[in-house]
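Thread: Newbie trying to understand structure tokens

Hi all, I'm a second-year student working on a class project, and my supervisor (Dr. K.) asked me to get a predicted structure for one chain before our next meeting. I've only ever worked with sequences, so writing a 3D structure as a token string is new to me. If someone could post the tokens and maybe explain what I'm looking at, I'd be very grateful. Here's the chain:
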Amino acid sequence: MDGLFLAFLALPFVFYAFVVQLRRMRLRSAASALDAEYADHGWFRAGAIVAKDFEVRIVRAGKTLRTQVHVNAPDTPGRFELAADFFREPPDWKHAKSLQTHSQRVFFTAVSMQGYGPPTEAERASLMHWLGRGSAPAALRLQALNDARIRKLELGDDISTSFCGVVTNVARLQQAVATLRLLLPRAAAQGSAR
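---
Reply by user tm_fold:
Sure, no problem. This is what the structure looks like when written as tokens:
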């Protein structure tokens, strides 16, 4: 009777270990197919797929996991959040936001908070200049974003997007990395494709 009770108590731990090992196996397989390496982060954090010019991270977002795809992007014009519809011709600025600092008055003091808001004219000009050096025409960029099912991307120290859940489908990850590379300036895109 005690053995049955202990087995019942151990069942969730065994199930968790099985899920973690299965996820590791799928990430290792995807890493080798992407010509990258799998970086293990222990039992309680999902690992990452790391290559020379991109990284695929599994991160916790509340109670769920998200797959983030990051591609190195040199000389970015700042921090932006762009929806795929921004890439229509001409650019739809309703779908572009830049990181800004806002001041809020709280009782007797002012508190500075960061958040996304409409870009200024200078930010618009620098973003358009950076995107103008891109390796693909605007229509091809929008089509590639839609084909890769990328609805939103972030531009900062790198260019990134995220998907719900743990994505280990090699074709989808390859398509996401290739699509993000389309947005890079020509010299950087050619260097990262090697």
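A couple of things are worth pointing out once you decode it. The chain has one domain: 2-192. The helical segments are 2-33, 121-132, 138-147, 170-182, 186-192. Feel free to ask follow-ups in this thread.
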